[in-house]
Amino acid sequence: MSRTDVLVTADWAQENLGAPGIVFVEVDEDTSAYDGGHLEGAVKLDWKQDLQDPLRRDFVDKSAFEALLSSRGIANDDTVVLYGGNNNWFAAYAYWYFKLYGHSDVKLIDGGRKKWELDGRPLSKDAVQRPATQYTAQDPDLSIRAFRDEVVASIGSKNIIDVRSPDEFSGKILAPAHLPQEQAQKAGHVPTAMNIPWSKAANEDGTFKSDAELAKLYDEQGFDESKPTIAYCRIGERSSHTWFVLRELLGKSDVKNYDGSWVEYGSLVGVPIEK
Amino acid sequence: MCAAPKQGGGLAGIDLSTQTVIQGQVWHDGAPVAGAYVRLLDSTDEFTAEVVTSPEGEFRFFAAPGEWKIRSLSAVGRGERVVSADVGLNETTVAIA
């Protein structure tokens, strides 16, 4: 696995729009972005409507994921190229999610929607309809997903990386600052967690920093190569960005995303919290 | 949840006795800039949030009292502004040179 296997440039994406066997997928929570203009031929996935169970706090199950991808016209042997807003947070989440359900060839567009827009590249408002497929998913790969009990048991022993902003880590604010700050959970972080914000891994245009810069970043912050790693944020999308950096770009082994993240951890009764 | 909510609009439903709202517009050449990327940086210049401006060039953040930096990035250029915010409504304008 190397950088070019998992990350494509905006130039590559533009040259390959409409190519057979390649499906571009925009992933946002606010799908008005897609509706206002998307890459030619790209289908959309709604982070909440499509990827979250409507009742419980969890993923959609395997059969629902199969139905979703089949209806979007994505086949098992397609190369799925993901991009989205928010510096690719939700596209990175979808990348992790596609990997969880065993899709083999998934890539991110470096810089996502932001870089595409800043470059002034073309967007289309044409409706996209791909012929339905018969998609078959694998059982969830839990080697890349952490749950709360594992996080509590990992305090002081694994690399726990809190990728939220320093003010969220310290408890000064409870959510990223584009959201109202009224939340039920306690403020703070998991004891012994390192605060390495996701944003330190990205350039201002949303592209990822170079492998050398990324390796230096985690090394300087005390990342221990000999230990397994768990990344978390507030709801698991920014930590997917960091999971992508650590596992897919830097090739670290045993890296999990804790998608329950602070919204779950900060609401648990009796667990230790640091501020 | 973490995706950028629609920017602009009224303050109905926002409790200004507890929230520290920083909002305003991005301007360039005498007109508001739609679709500009606006990020909020903390006192150490670290990323705290980012939104995309509304068709009227508006942005809004929910922060905490203190010093913040607002940086705008768009296809027409970039601008920056330092804001000292208190609980309640803090309004500002970012000019792209």
Assembly type: heterodimer
> Which architecture of chain B does the CATH hierarchy give at level 2?
Sandwich
Radius of gyration of chain A: 18 Å
CATH class of chain B: Mainly Beta
* Total of DSSP H or I helical runs spanning 4+ residues of chain B: 0
Number of strands of chain A: 9
For the record, give the distance between the C-alpha atoms at the N and C termini of chain B, rounded to a whole number. Answer: 33 Å
Look at the structure and give the CATH class of the largest domain in chain A.
Alpha Beta
| Secondary-structure content class of chain A | alpha/beta
Shape of chain A: globular
Organism (chain A): Geodermatophilus sabuli
Protein name (chain A): Sulfurtransferase
GO molecular function (chain A): thiosulfate-cyanide sulfurtransferase activity
Catalytic activity (chain A): thiosulfate + hydrogen cyanide = thiocyanate + sulfite + 2 H(+)
Present the secondary structure layout.
The complex is a heterodimer of chains A (275) and B (97).
Chain A lengths: L2 H4 E2 L1 H6 L6 E7 L3 H4 L7 E4 L15 H11 L6 E5 L1 H16 L5 E4 L2 H7 L29 H6 L5 E4 L3 H4 L24 E2 L15 H10 L8 E4 L5 H12 L5 E3 L3 H5 L10
Parallel strand pairs in A: 1-5, 2-3, 2-4, 4-5, 6-7, 6-8, 8-9
Chain B lengths: L19 E9 L2 E2 L4 E5 L5 E6 L5 E6 L2 E9 L2 E9 L2 E8 L2
Parallel strand pairs in B: 1-8
Antiparallel strand pairs in B: 1-2, 1-5, 3-4, 3-6, 6-7
